[in-house]
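ugh finaly. both done.
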Amino acid sequence: MPRAQSHPRETDFDAAYDAVLARWPRPTTASELRTPHGTTHLLHHGPADGPPVLLLPGGGSTAASWGATAAALGTTHRIHAVDLVGGPGRSRPDGSPIRTAADLRTWLDAVLDGLGLASAAFLGHSYGGWIALRYALAAPDRADRLVLLDPTGCFAGFRPAYLLRALPVLLRPSAARAEALLAWETGGAEHDPAARRLDCLAAERPRRRPVTGPRPTPAELGALRPPVLLLLAGGSRVHDVRRVAARARTAVPGIVRETHPAATHHTLLESPPPAALSGIAAFLTG
């Protein structure tokens, strides 16, 4: 069925989303789930009876950005990639606004229930890592394992230089400003051009202000029950990777840490090194 007429920039975004999605492994399907906080759009790949993995993108990215991860894990696991409600993807915020971490838990509870899952492993990138960690702390029986890809707001704050570069995108969003930020952050590292275009157009999409909050306390992190794999981008300009690694090692007993020197914050999701993908697969099956 043809799409309804839309604004030209929205049409550009849809075309960019479809271009990234076209490179997902086959078969890939899409679905929508009604939740108290809006209609959630998901992408699915992998054997129906495989161990479930829920993928949460960063605040400016979409479910489509997980294609390489889906290809690496989808031979053994059932992949469910989520467009964040209120984010730039194809979920619709046609329910109660998500205003608190408790609302995020209610939303993810509804997503798991809608998928018929008692629990799942969680992979989260950037802000999606913060959501996944908060959910694992609040609902430990529903989070089997936790993979955090260069997560923000979990173990350390942002670099001031990154905040200064990101400010124009936040105050006056445009594809050109987003491109300038990504060009600076990736610094010439390999970055999938189709995924990059999608992220740039996503900056112009209407979105709700994301829920934020303080970093988890040392006591909370010390009580974290699911096994945790922390993948860090050695070239990340978003935060001090060494500080993140040190604080995670101190706070989370048994955490597995890997740093990929050639990756940056954004390329770790969209152009992940093969070693990162093999590390995730080994952790999930270990």
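ok and the 2nd:
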Amino acid sequence: MQFQGRKLRHEFKYYLNTHEYLSLSQKAAALLRMDSHSPGREGYGIRSLYFDGVHDHSLHDKNNGVFAREKYRIRIYNGSKDHISLERKSKYGDYVCKDAARLTHREYESIMNGDAEILSKREEALVQQFRTALVHRAFRPVVIVDYIREAYVYDLGNVRITFDKMLSAGVNTVDLFDEAMVLREAIMGPLTIMEVKYDSFLPVHVRQIIETEKHVRSSISKYVICREARYRHFKE
């Protein structure tokens, strides 16, 4: 599907209990291949720093069910400085698209020190739009989202099935590389978040593997969940 010239993907999310996760994970591992980031079945670490405006419009847009919305984040994998990714996730109802660009560690540090001018010579539209959000829309870092992702892919339909575990919020810092970071569990209970993404269609046998008809879709935002967890931490 195309929207304003952008290619959109379907995205559906589900909460799974421990039994459901173990069953679906085993089925996915038997028939699909793990994605390139995965060193093994346990998955890999994802840590994202989300940005929002002074009026928290990204937070309120999600909570109010606004049809078209977007979020900026900087993401790293397994705590490494070698791959720092600036991302913008845009959502249009049940469809999503993601734009990404690499950042250097020096660029990241300058952004965190409040100096976005380091990005002024970058040519990518995403980087310049992010710079505008920082300079003219007063975007600032608001929360760190941390979890382990177990991911499987299937070429036909460009399918991606992920199981996100141990969702936690950084509560004492907004620096992705802070060695003294304190993480607080963000979801009560042993729940896993399953996300199913695909382009124009979901192959029948993949649909059968993940048993979508047996699970209730949820409007899940790890960003919102972790904002709330961080808020609870400071209220206690």
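summary for the 2nd one i guess: The CA atoms of residues 58 and 161 lie 25 Å apart.
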